[in-house]
Structure formats: structure tokens, C-alpha cells
Amino acid sequence: MEKAEMTKWLEKANVLIEALPYIQRFHGKTIVVKYGGSAMVDHALKKSVIRDVALLKLVGFRPIIVHGGGKEITRWVDRIGLETRFVNGLRVTDKETMEVAEMVLNRVNKGLVSMMEKVGLKAVGLSGKDGTVLRVQRKFSDGQDIGYVGEVTEVNPQLLNSLLDQDFIPVICPIGSDDEYHSYNINADDAACAIATAMKASKLVFLTDIEGVYRDPADPGSLISEMTAGEALELLKSGNVGGGMLPKIQNCVDAIQAGVSRVHILDGRIEHSLLLEFYTNRGIGTAIIGDEEERYHVEQ
């Protein structure tokens, strides 16, 4: 074997060795991945995420996927001539819009399940209504009624635990039901946070269209690789975080305070971002950990 070829194979071996402590640390642990953004609409990125999930499953993780579908819902709402309105960034969801949302999310759900089965995974698609996994109450935005938008009040982990124990990957669309069994659309970030908390997940991951959390959004070099929940709260108070990142970081902190070990914000536009974050020393996104938690990255 030529020296150049041997070097190439040694580099591959070193990648596996670098991943070893992370594989050992999280073997058998539950991970919740909130799947959204460009990774849901770009076919190549979709395949990348599914392959990452397959590898995570094979090396011992117990993955749960929670997905959104806002862009697809908007496309279908516009297509059939319904009005799209937002209040404080939340979609106003009347009865007709709720019917469209449920149809679209279930369609997206089954598509993801099919992709997983093509790579040899055992996956089951469900909504939060199945097995009353997600029980909700009506959510208001600054006192305004925004229709069939739900706030999670209770998560029933029984069905999810049964599926995981039988070696299935639950793929969940964020539809829940209230005490009268009416359907409600739930923000996918909120649903993922509630599920991760109820399942006592070791990791909660948000796949987004940003590289991570910046100390200064105007400075590309200020990406934060790792911070504690306390440091995240200080960042929120600093005024340097705005827009959609505010509720996302708050969700991360809430999950940490509720018992989730680590929360990751990753750029889903990068192929294999899950593997790069979990199984390399540096990672590529932002990891938020509990104030007393051991630092994530392993020094060699």
C-alpha cells in the first residue's frame, strides 16, 4: 500500500478513535432531535440527516425525532386560498387552517418515516394525539386568541418508551389535543423541549438555519461553542440576542433546568452536522449545558 493511501486510511481510523469517548459516554441515552429549517426542504440535506440518525441509532443512541413543517403549511394554505396571519410571530390557526396543518404535517411525517426505512431503520410516525403523547391547552399571545395553537401541559411518555424499547424510532409531528380532544398545532421547538424533558433525554438538538449562538451577532468570529445555562441567561439579559433566537435559547435553558443534560443548536445546512457536533472534539454548533455539568468536549 502506498504511503499516501495509508495516510488516508489512518486519518479515517483517527476519526473513529476521536469519536470513541463520546460513543461510550452516551451509549443507551435518549436524544430528541427537533428537525426543521433547510434540512427539511433540501433533499440532499434530508438524506444527510437521516443517515446521521441511522448512525446514532446503530452506535447506541435512542433517538426521537420531532419535526415541524411551517413552510409547507404556508404553501398549502396559500394554495387553497386561505388567509395567512401571524400575531407576534405565531400563526393564527382557525378551524380550516388547522385541518390543513394536520394534513400537511402528517404527510411530512410519513415521508420522513419512509426515508428512514429506506436506510434500514425501524421508524413509526405519529402525532402528539396518538396515545395522548401531547396534551395541550389553548395558547394566547399577549392575551390575544390565535385559534387552535396549543401550549403543552402534559407529555405521556408511555408510548414513546414502548417504541424505543422495541427498537423503533418515534417520528412525531407537533399536533396535540385538549381535554375535549380538539386538535391543536404546537410550535415544534416547544413540543421537542417538552418531550425531551418528559423523556429525561441526555440531549436535545435544534437543527436550524444558523451556525449557532453568537456573543455578538455582528461578529462572525464570536460563535459560542459551549456555555452553561447560567451564561445563556446572562446572554439573554445582555440584549445581544434578538428575533427567533430569543425563544430558542429560552427553550434551551428551560430544558436544562428541567433535567436535560445538554442542548445543542446546530446548522442543519451543513451535511452531517449531528455527527460533527457529537463525535468530534471541537463540534460545530453551540452546546448549552447545566451549570454543574462536566464540559462536553473531551481534551486529548
From TrEMBL:
Q: What family is it from?
A: Belongs to the acetylglutamate kinase family. ArgB subfamily.
Q: Which NCBIfam families match?
A: argB
Primary role: Catalyzes the ATP-dependent phosphorylation of N-acetyl-L-glutamate.
Q: Establish whether keyword Repeat is in the entry.
A: no
Q: What class of enzyme is it?
A: transferase
Q: Which reaction does it catalyse?
A: N-acetyl-L-glutamate + ATP = N-acetyl-L-glutamyl 5-phosphate + ADP
Q: Where is it mostly found?
A: cytoplasm
Keywords from the named record: Amino-acid biosynthesis, Arginine biosynthesis, ATP-binding, Cytoplasm, Kinase, Nucleotide-binding, Transferase
Q: Name one GO biological process term.
A: L-arginine biosynthetic process via ornithine
**Location in the cell:** Cytoplasm
Phylogenetic lineage: Bacteria, Bacillati, Bacillota, Clostridia, Lachnospirales
Could you tell me the gene encoding this protein? argB
- The protein here is known as Acetylglutamate kinase
Protein's UniProt keywords contain Lyase: no
Gene Ontology MF terms in the entry: acetylglutamate kinase activity; ATP binding
**Could you tell me which Gene3D superfamilies the record lists for this protein?**
Acetylglutamate kinase-like
EC number annotated for this UniProt entry: 2.7.2.8
Residue ranges annotated for the Aspartate/glutamate/uridylate kinase domain, each copy included: 29-267
Q: Which InterPro entries match?
A: AceGlu_kinase-like_sf (IPR036393), AcgluKinase_fam (IPR004662), ArgB (IPR037528), Asp/Glu/Uridylate_kinase (IPR001048), Glu/AcGlu_kinase (IPR001057), NAGK-C (IPR041727)
User: Which residues are recorded as binding substrate?
Assistant: 69-70, 91, 185
Q: In which pathway does it act?
A: Amino-acid biosynthesis; L-arginine biosynthesis; N(2)-acetyl-L-ornithine from L-glutamate: step 2/4
Residues the UniProt record annotates as site (Transition state stabilizer): 34, 248
For this record, the Gene Ontology CC terms, alphabetical, are: cytoplasm
